[in-house]
Design goal:
The complex is a heterodimer of chains A (about 270) and B (about 700). Chain A has about 270 residues and is an alpha/beta fold. Chain A has one domain: HUPs (Rossmann fold), CATH 3.40.50.620. Chain A contains seven helices and 13 strands. The longest helix of chain A has 17 residues. Chain B has a four-stranded parallel β-sheet, sandwiched between helices. In chain B, strands 6-5-7-8 form a four-stranded parallel β-sheet, sandwiched between helices. The N and C termini of chain B lie far apart (about 80 Å). Classes of the chains: A alpha/beta (about 270), B mainly alpha (about 700).
């Protein structure tokens, strides 16, 4: 049996869009992106696919399945992963999935169980929209498999995975028995550029669509009712800066006045 | 009488002709095989222009007459015209060699006699040309040339052709004692030497036969040697000039991706990864290059110590082609190629070389034999990008950026309509005359935003009816195409064309020469036909119509830098200069490399966003040239050029006080019109539009 690797990818609003393109809707507790902001694959998730492809390249043979959870448009990031070289794609899309990190991890873990026969699950270290960095470990917990975080290199050796895990200074080498889950960090390198032939092939591939029912979950388990995170308030903090120019004839005079102002403000 | 008119001379004569001809024809047949299998290239459109062009470039040798290369501009036409003139004598040699009555000497009215002085004159002029060539190769040794034995062989062969021609003629005059000496004046002069020596009739006959046959053998030997030398251009150049691409030099041809996908078998490629994937015209280019090196000595990449030399691209193309072309020996052994060991195209040309090209077209402008280097380089890039996904990291980041975000300016803090704040610019709705195509740079890159605003103010001031697409404006696709992603380009182009068609756009004006080139020359490939103007053309027109009247003086010296995609690729040279001349009190300076011979700023061909990791910076080299004129302002008309100067000037001049300023022509005109900015420039956040590499 060749290796079977599952990579989880998320579609996010372009994290490089200018800050002015985003608006906080405090009433709805949502961030609204302007029309010009394109949805893209979360950068770390593209690296999870890249890590899977590197394992496949090294092994000569492996099957890579990509899963995404999100709206219909998330099909694009599945297609992108297929164009990079993944073999199959699954999209979990259902209004019932509109929950938090916990419900997302639950839905993804059920989908992974449904796919079955996997050796390795790869996720990005965090999604580049909310940067929570929770879902990957949640999946591992729910599947009951070991997880290793922040990989800069992932290799499969026999029945174990060997991970170089990024530290503040240097890295750890960690081995875990398969099946396991690894989250990938940007130190892995750059995701590959899809070849045109693969883009064309990916365009023709069918993406499997599953809703909550397909995973044997009812809305009360994965929807808004099941969330474990309570968002109290979403707002943009206001920071005000006042600038005062201290003037004077000579540098000495300016320095004296500056010192006086600072003392008045009880800064010195 | 020719020595071959009787036994045993005629046996030698026919042996020589049949033997050499057979060898020559076999060689040509083998060489033609890859051409027959190669892809087609449009070569018969615009026939009348082709004929005119052929007369000018080929017969008239027009591309040789360039001041910079005046020396070879004299020597090559001398040899070439001599070759044409003396071809008649060589043909006559064959005619009269077969049978005396066929000789041109018997033409009515003795008209051949009147042609003889011309031929004799060219005997001498060709030798002058050869002497000049020998002097250049032996003493001057221009670095652009590939100096090897091959050239000496060719020069020697031509020299001996002339010597044997004159000697054979001189002995013939003595032999036949004809009173036509006044016509063949050179041969007559030489024949007087032999007359003075009192040679016997037999000895004269022997010497005549010797030089006559020597001439014949050298002539055929030369013909047979040509395909094996780098001078095969003698055989191919006429075709190369006649069948050249008639489009503007900045145009790249499309590939039919859908059809290729449908017919694609395993291993089919979109770009050119093997030499046999090139179209036949590219193969002809390889066989036509004489390695004169004019391309190389005008290539911005080569001149700043990068890997690329356009000359080597052609040379390596030829080497790779010949490694797959059968030889006579291999044909006889039934092998399809000399040793079955084909050279790898990308490795031979060099990955770095392929990526160093800024597509400025300087090589193509200078090439005297109409070789089309740039499309060939891009063909290989297409292979590297679309088939192999192998490219510099920054090129990949740029393509990903365009693919995901629809523009190349990664990290920009601007939106597409931010620049419009405070300006009364309408959205295009079909009722306006012009669409102002702002372009990705014009709206998203910090240095270009004020230029767009200046242009909009000028158009408003002049009462031009125009509108913009605002947030709906896509990327024109130029960087994707030049970086080899034809698929991405076609998607962008189709999107842009659809939007413009749906809005009823007829006329476009843009401040970007790259967008101009793409929309004007390349969109028709996808049925997008619009009348496209560069902003300097429209502003020039408005000035001449009196709709804009500069009044504020600018007592400074301005040097104008020609954008490659304006001046060289699209022949827009005078309009921007006329605008500068209209500025009160301004003085205009010129750089040595200007107009069509301009030197790239370094940002063409997608290189605005690709890291320049080898050699010196091209923009520093160009900035030096601009600074050397002593001008206070360098004027540009391209969003990339101006940024390259903005980067180059502080790098070369640490003293802020003394720094030259870089300004767009539109900004200068805007200042001279006196329509002071009514709004502050759109404010950017912390960052700015920066290349994807950072």
């Amino acid at each position: 049996m060749p290796l079977h690797i599952i990579a989880c990818v998320k579609q996010v609003p372009d994290p490089e869009a200018p800050a002015s393109a985003f608006r906080v809707d405090e009433a709805a507790k949502k961030v609204v992106a302007a029309a010009g902001v394109t949805p893209v694959i979360s950068q770390f998730d593209a690296l999870a696919v890249e890590a899977a492809l590197r394992i496949k390249d090294a092994a000569g043979d492996a099957k890579i399945t990509v899963i995404s959870l999100g709206p219909e448009t998330a099909r694009d990031v599945v297609k992108h992963s297929l164009a990079m070289g993944a073999d199959e794609g699954v999209l979990l899309t259902d209004s019932a999935f509109d929950g938090d990190s916990y419900t997302t991890a639950l839905a993804l873990s059920k989908a992974i169980e449904k796919i079955g026969d996997y050796n390795l699950v790869l996720c990005g270290r965090q999604a580049t929209d909310w940067d929570a960095g929770v879902v990957g470990y949640g999946i591992a917990e729910m599947l009951g498999i070991p997880s290793v975080s922040l990989a800069k290199s992932v290799t499969v050796q026999g029945d174990k995975v060997v991970v170089e895990r990024v530290l503040m200074e240097g890295y750890d080498t960690i081995e875990a028995p398969l099946p396991a889950l690894v989250t990938v960090s940007n130190e892995l390198g750059e995701p590959r550029y899809p070849k045109l032939q693969q883009i064309m092939m990916a365009a023709r591939k069918q993406v499997t669509i599953w809703g909550a029912g397909d995973l044997g979950l009812d809305a009360s388990k994965v929807g808004a009712g099941a969330v474990r995170l309570n968002l109290e308030r979403l707002f943009q903090p206001v920071s005000e800066v006042e600038c005062e120019i201290v003037e004077g004839e000579t540098p000495d005079e300016i320095a004296t006045k500056l010192a006086q102002r600072l003392r008045e403000q009880k800064i010195i | 009488m020719a020595p071959s008119n009787e036994l045993p001379g005629n046996i030698f004569f026919y042996l020589i002709i049949v033997g050499f001809s057979a060898f020559f024809l076999l060689t040509i047949a083998a060489r033609l095989l890859p051409f027959l299998k190669a892809k087609g290239a449009p070569c018969l459109d615009q026939l009348p222009q082709r004929v005119g062009d052929f007369m000018l470039v080929m017969i008239g040798q027009s591309k040789f007459f360039r001041r910079k290369y005046w020396y070879s501009g004299i020597l090559h036409p001398l040899i070439f015209w001599g070759f044409l003139v003396l071809l008649i004598r060589s043909l006559n040699m064959l005619f009269s060699g077969v049978a005396d009555p066929l000789s041109l000497e018997h033409l009515p009215g003795g008209i051949f006699d009147f042609y003889k002085p011309v031929m004799d004159l060219f005997n001498v002029l060709v030798m002058v040309g050869i002497a000049m060539g020998a002097y250049e190769r032996f003493f001057v040794k221009p670095p652009r040339m590939t100096l090897n034995l091959d050239a000496w062989r060719i020069l020697g062969l031509i020299f001996f052709l002339m010597v044997t021609d004159i000697l054979a003629n001189s002995f013939e005059l003595n032999l036949e004692g004809e009173s036509k000496e006044a016509f063949s004046f050179v041969a007559y002069g030489v024949s007087n030497i032999w007359s003075g020596m009192n040679l016997s009739h037999d000895a004269t006959g022997m010497l005549h036969a010797t030089f006559w046959y020597a001439h014949l053998i050298i002539l055929f030997g030369f013909l047979c040697y040509l395909p094996y030398s780098k001078h095969s251009h003698v055989l191919t150049v006429a075709f190369n000039v006649f069948f050249r691409n008639r489009e503007r030099s900045g145009v790249l041809r499309p590939i039919n991706i859908e059809a290729m996908m449908e017919n694609a078998e395993e291993g089919a490629t979109f770009g050119v990864g093997k030499v046999t994937d090139f179209n036949w015209k590219a193969l002809l280019d390889f066989m036509t290059c004489t390695e004169c090196g004019r391309c190389q000595s005008n290539c911005p990449a080569y001149l700043t110590d990068k890997e690329l030399s356009p000359k080597e691209i052609e040379h390596h193309g030829r080497m790779t082609l010949l490694s797959t072309t059968p030889t006579i020996a291999s044909l006889m052994k039934g092998k399809p190629s000399p040793n079955g060991d084909h050279l790898n195209l990308v490795e031979t040309m060099g990955f770095e070389s392929i990526w160093d090209c800024v597509t400025c077209g300087s090589c193509m402008y200078w090439c005297p034999v109409c070789i089309e280097h740039v499309p060939e380089i891009i063909d290989v890039r297409r292979y590297l990008v679309m088939d192999e996904a192998r490219m510099p990291e920054t090129a990949q980041a740029t393509l990903m950026q365009i693919e995901q975000r629809g523009h190349p300016w990664r990290g920009t803090q601007f939106g597409r309509s931010d620049w419009m704040q405070g300006l009364d610019v309408p959205l295009f709705d079909g009722s306006q005359e012009y669409l102002l195509w702002v372009g990705c740079s014009g709206s998203l890159s910090e240095r270009n935003v004020p230029i767009t605003q200046a242009l909009a103010r000028l158009l408003l001031q002049a009462g031009v009816s125009f509108g913009v697409l605002g947030e709906e404006e896509p990327c024109c696709g130029d960087p994707a195409r030049r970086l080899g992603n034809e698929y991405l380009f076609q998607m962008q182009a189709q999107q842009a064309i659809e939007i413009m068609k749906s809005k009823g756009v007829k006329k476009i004006v843009t401040a970007c020469p790259h967008g101009y080139n793409t929309m004007r020359n390349e969109y028709p490939q996808f049925d997008g036909k619009f009348e496209v103007m560069h902003h300097t053309e429209l502003l020039d027109q408005l000035l001449r119509e009196g709709k804009l009247q500069p009044k504020v003086g600018l007592a400074e010296t301005i040097v104008y830098h020609d954008s490659c995609y304006l001046a060289r690729h699209n022949e827009i040279e005078s309009a921007p200069r006329r605008i500068l001349e209209s500025l009160p009190q301004a003085k205009i300076a010129e750089m040595e490399r200007s107009r069509k011979t301009t030197f790239c700023c370094g940002a063409g061909g997608g290189h605005m966003w690709v890291e320049e990791s080898r050699g010196r910076h091209i923009n520093h080299a160009r900035t030096e040239e601009a600074m050397a004129t002593g001008a206070q302002i360098v004027a540009t008309a391209c969003p990339f050029c101006i940024q390259m100067f903005e980067d180059g000037i502080p790098a070369l001049e640490p003293d802020e006080e003394k720094r030259m300023r870089a300004m767009d022509v539109a900004e200068l005109l805007d200042a001279a019109i006196g329509t002071a900015p009514t709004v502050k420039p759109a404010t950017a956040g912390e960052g700015e539009g920066v290349p994807a590499s950072t």
